[in-house]
Amino acid sequence: MNRAFTLLDGGRVCTHIQETTKSAFTLAEVLITLAIIGVVAAITIPSLVKNYNEKAWATAKDVFEKRLEVATKQLNTEEKLAGYSSTMDFVNELKNKIKITKICGSSELTKCFAKTITTANNLITYDTETDLAQLTKEDWGTGTVGVQFANGVNALISYNPNTAQEPYNNQFAASAESMAIIYDVSGYKNPNILGKDINVNGNVKPLDCLIKSDLVGGMCITKILAPGTGYSALTPDECAEAKNNGEIDVDACYSRNDYYAGAVKACGGKKANLPTEAQLIDFAKYVYNTDSIKGGASITSDLVMNREKAAQFISASSYSNMFSVWSGREDSSNRAYYRSFSSTSTFLDAFTRGNSGRLAVCVDQ
């Protein structure tokens, strides 16, 4: 583009013409810039959304728990917290202190709560109508009720018939004493994952299964502990002291380092928290994808281990293609039963309690 301008030079008029150019981005440069912006957005936006969602869930959780605690403390102050024979009766009183828009009986829980929820590792799915119909480990006998709160939180509630009330105690944890509750701060919206938008209080039965089997008593494996790193052997003195104090319920203690007693302690102190022999048989069916597993000391051979299902056990073991698991059955002060799982066979046996190669697998019966 040309630009003209005039100068006065000693009475003479001089006109100069200056040639200028205007710079601009080329199409290729624009496209490259847009591509870079797109890549950066693809990397950062999911992280930003995830962080936003997690903060929103955490805030909603805190707000809801405070409102619920205020409501139940009001019931406690008015001496209306205790004495209900059913969860429905309790919820009908609770709605006078915290706004509830919908109540669903035990036969229609999914009208108030999501049909399924999952664990954070996405390995276990819980069905509301079967797995969550009984919220507590011990049956309180008051039933489970679905509830939709006015603030958008959906919940399942079971009332504790043994609830005490302390109307003059402002520090009394009324909500913890009166109910088991599992609640979804995002309503019916996804992801419906425990620890994210799904939360539970301390009265709800454990829902942190690593592996869940519907075969024998709904076995739920909560921990897979390797000897030395996940749990430790107890010395004879440690075992005797723990036994005398009621910390572990073993029949006897080994005269040397006792890995079996250590496994019992790591799983909560009860032998019942280790798998039964029947559960280990069903777990073998799970690992080998077959119903043809022999009980007792008989060896079942010609099997093919499902490495994906056994991965967590293999990784916890010190071996690359096999593992073995303590059972809840003692043989003597020197020996305890375990089941061995190799790539092609499995069997039950009793061996020295000083063996450091057995996994402590904790179950919630």
Strand order of the largest sheet: 3-6-7-8-9
Mean pLDDT: 88
* Helix residue percentage: 25-40%
Spatial extent as radius of gyration: 32 Å
Instruction: Detail the poorly predicted runs.
Output: none
Quickly count the helices: 7
* Basic shape: globular
Task: Please outline the major beta sheet.
Answer: 5 strands, antiparallel
Total strand segments: 15
H and E string: EEHHEEEEEHEEEEHHHHEEEE
Terminal Cα span: 86 Å
Secondary-structure content class: alpha+beta
Strand content: 15-25%
Number of domains: 2
Q: Secondary-structure blueprint of this entry?
A:
Elements lengths: L1 E8 L2 E8 L7 H51 L9 H8 L5 E5 L11 E3 L6 E3 L16 E6 L4 E6 L14 H5 E6 L13 E3 L10 E2 L7 E6 L10 H9 L14 H8 L10 H12 L18 H10 L6 E8 L4 E7 L4 E7 L7 E5 L1
Antiparallel strand pairs: 1-2, 3-6, 4-5, 6-7, 7-8, 8-9, 10-11, 11-15, 12-13, 13-14
Verbal overview:
- There is one protein chain.
- This protein is α+β, with helices and mostly antiparallel strands.
- It folds into two domains: 44-206, no CATH class; 220-364, no CATH class.
- Helices cover 28% and strands 23% of the residues.
- It has helices at 27-77, 87-94, 174-178, 236-244, 259-266, 277-288, 307-316, and strands spanning 2-9, 12-19, 100-104, 116-118, 125-127, 144-149, 154-159, 179-184, 198-200, 211-212, 220-225, 323-330, 335-341, 346-352, 360-364.
- A hairpin with a 4-residue loop joins strand 12 (323-330) and strand 13.
- The chain is globular and about 65 Å long.
- The model has no long low-confidence stretch (mean pLDDT 88).
